[in-house]
Amino acid sequence: MSEEKKNIFEEGQVLLFDKPLYWTSFDLVNKVRIMIRSEFGIKKIKVGHAGTLDPLATGLMIICTGKATKSINEFFNLDKEYIATFHFGKTTPSFDLETEVDGSWPAEHINKEMMERVLQSFLGEQQQVPPMHSAKFIDGKRAYEFARRGIEIELKPVSVVFSEIELLAFEIPETKIRIRCSKGTYIRSFARDLGRALESGCYLSALERSSTGKFKLENAYSLEKFDQYLKQMKQI
Question: Where in the sequence numbering do the catalytic residues fall?
Fold first, then answer.
C-alpha cells in the first residue's frame, strides 16, 4: 500500500455510520478509531463526531477523522430528520425507555384526524424545554446528573424549528412519525409535548436518525461494511 493510501484517514475523511442500538456516540467513535489504527498500524489519529445520538437511538452519525475533525462544526447546524415511534397513554421521567413508566393516561380518544391536526400545530418555530435526562450543561454539570439524584432543576426553553412532520403509521398505543427539525431539537421533549397536546401521555419508544443535511442513512456504513472497506483499502 502506498503512503498516500495509508494516510487517507490522517489527511481527513468524513464518514457516515449507522450507530447500533445501545451504543453511545463515544462507543462508536472509539470503535472506528481502534479499527483504523489496527488496520493501518497508525499509533494516533483524531476521530470525532458531528452530533450525538442517545444510546436508545439508531441511525446516522457523521464521523470525521484526521484533519477533517477541524470541520466538524460545519455539520452541527444542519437540519436533522428522524423516524420516531411514540407510545401513547403512558409517560416516563426521561420521556423514553431509559426510565420506568411513571404514569398512565387515557388514549382511546385519539384518532387519526386529531393526530394529524395536532402534528400540524407543531410546524414552524417552537419553544422547547429540554429533558432533565439530557446532556445539557447546568452550572457546569450535565442535567442528567441532577435528574439521577432526584434534584429538580428548571431548564430554560430553547427555540427549535420543525420544518416537516409526517404521520407514517397511525396506531394506538404506538404511532410512527417522520420529523425534520433544526439542530438542538429533542425528539423526547417532542414526545412529552405531543402527549400533552393530545390530552394524554406519551413517550418515545424508538428513534432512528435518517438524515443530517444532505447526508443520508442509506449511504452509511455498518461496522461490518466499514471493516470490509478497510481490508479492501489495505489490498490496493
Answer: 54
